[in-house]
Specification:
about 425 residues; Phosphorylase Kinase, domain 1; Transferase(Phosphotransferase), domain 1; 14 helices; 11 strands; about 30% helix; globular; Protein_kinase_ATP_BS; Kinase-like_dom_sf; protein serine/threonine kinase activity; transferase; Prot_kinase_dom
């Protein structure tokens, strides 16, 4: 990971300039590809997606990585769906048969092509209704790669909350249960998400399911369905044996980055699995959802996702970020301090159960955090008569601030040597 030795952090490009450059280069890619003569084999994108086994977690050896060209001859781009640190996601339509997809335009200078291949493989392998399917990979220009995925007709979690007259903590808990179930599935596949935050959670309006190739509509319309998106930071978990032997599942640059773990390791005890520190994703953007072991660049396990769940619940019930400081460095120090506060002005109407659960999850030592199965037995998930309402205005302020930072390429400082400070 380039630049990690430097304890400082840098703004690589201003947000406004970045947005202009991305739009210009996508337009440039479109014009360039429209002049190419390429055979339209866009149907193959979806045929390939249907050729894989329907096992709960498909084998990489059954999936072929094939980079294609001529994206703009096969798809029309309609509008932006969202943007992140390395990419812009756009809604597109297949020109031959009209199927709509989501196309993730990835800036190659920001994310290595092998990492995009790894995300493609992971999405193709997963068989769970909370994760989207990947269809194809395209090369756009020397600067952009394109990952074509299933289109989710939905809203970001907080935007969905804003469309409702009110949302209770009990209704919020129903959504968090879905998030936890999705993470449990991911962990059972020996993969850890590492980037759980409100922007990466979508409410699927049509309740589509990728359990089958037809992407059926789920008939139960009572409960909203949640999708976990952007698995670009997800990493393969290694067994203690692999770690001890320094087995090389080296990085996303490896073709078998998401290959199965040590066959002798227990599939049921994912708490022992780890991502080696040299394989962790680069730290860019804002650190407020990151676990302390991520910031310290230590080996990381599934407990990091449990920490993320704790931050997510804290934000949803209070509209506040538990560790936000005046700078990235201050936020990192707050995370490492282990001091979680519940100011009365923001928690007066929050249930004690929510406070207790987040306090259990936001502990410094990873092994002291409850596992996901134990989390689901907490009383917060059984408050059917709860009347505590999510704070819409505070959440709106939180969402507005986060949207301004969505494209941030500010590198987060290394914090392994940072002293803990109160906040």
């Amino acid at each position: 990971m380039s630049g990690v030795e430097d304890p400082g952090y840098y703004i690589l490009e201003e947000e406004e300039e970045e947005e202009t450059n991305v739009k210009y280069e996508i337009k440039e890619a479109s014009e360039k590809l429209e002049n190419n003569e390429a055979e339209d084999n866009s149907d193959e994108d979806f045929k390939q997606a249907g050729d894989e086994t329907e096992e709960p977690f498909a084998d990489d050896t059954q999936i072929k990585i094939q980079w294609q060209s001529g994206f703009q001859r096969k798809y029309s781009v309609t509008h932006d769906l969202g943007r992140g640190r390395f990419s812009v996601v756009k809604r597109c339509q297949n020109l031959r048969h009209g199927q709509e997809v989501a196309a993730k335009f990835v800036r190659r200078g920001r994310q290595d092509q092998k990492e995009t291949e790894a995300e493609f493989l992971l999405l193709r392998r997963l068989r769970h209704p909370s994760f989207t399917r990947s269809y194809a990979l395209y090369t756009a220009t020397p600067k952009f790669d394109i990952l074509v995925m299933e289109l989710v007709m939905g809203l970001p979690l907080l935007d969905w909350v804003f469309t409702r007259e009110e949302t209770t903590e009990a209704e919020c808990a129903v959504l968090v249960v879905q998030v936890i179930n999705a993470l449990q599935y991911l962990h059972s596949c020996h993969v850890v998400h590492l980037d759980l935050k409100p922007e990466n959670l979508l409410i699927d309006i049509l309740r589509t399911s990728n359990n089958s190739d037809s992407c059926d509509i789920i008939k139960d319309e009572v409960q909203p369905a949640i999708r976990l998106v952007d698995l670009g930071s997800a990493r393969h978990l290694m067994s203690p044996t692999q770690l001890a032997n320094n087995t090389d599942v080296s990085s996303s640059a490896s073709g078998d980055f998401f290959s199965k773990s040590d066959p002798n390791a227990s599939d049921n005890d994912t708490s022992l699995l780890r991502v080696p520190s040299n394989q962790l994703p680069a730290l860019f953007g804002t650190p407020e959802f990151m676990a302390p072991e991520m910031l310290g660049r230590n080996d990381v396990g599934v407990q990091a996702d449990c920490w993320n769940v704790g931050v997510l619940i804290y934000v949803l019930v209070s509209g506040r970020s538990p560790f936000l400081g005046t700078s990235n460095e201050a936020t990192c120090k707050n995370i490492l301090s282990g001091d979680v506060r519940y100011p009365v002005e923001h928690f007066a109407s929050v249930t004690q159960e929510a406070c207790d659960l987040t306090r259990d999850l936001l502990v410094q030592k990873p092994t002291d955090r409850p596992n996901l199965q134990d989390i689901l037995t907490h009383p917060w998930f059984n408050m059917n008569e709860c009347e505590s309402i999510l704070p819409i205005q505070s959440l709106a302020d939180f969402s507005f601030r986060r949207s301004k930072l969505a494209s941030s390429m500010q590198e987060i400082p290394l914090t392994s040597a940072m002293p803990a400070t109160s906040h």
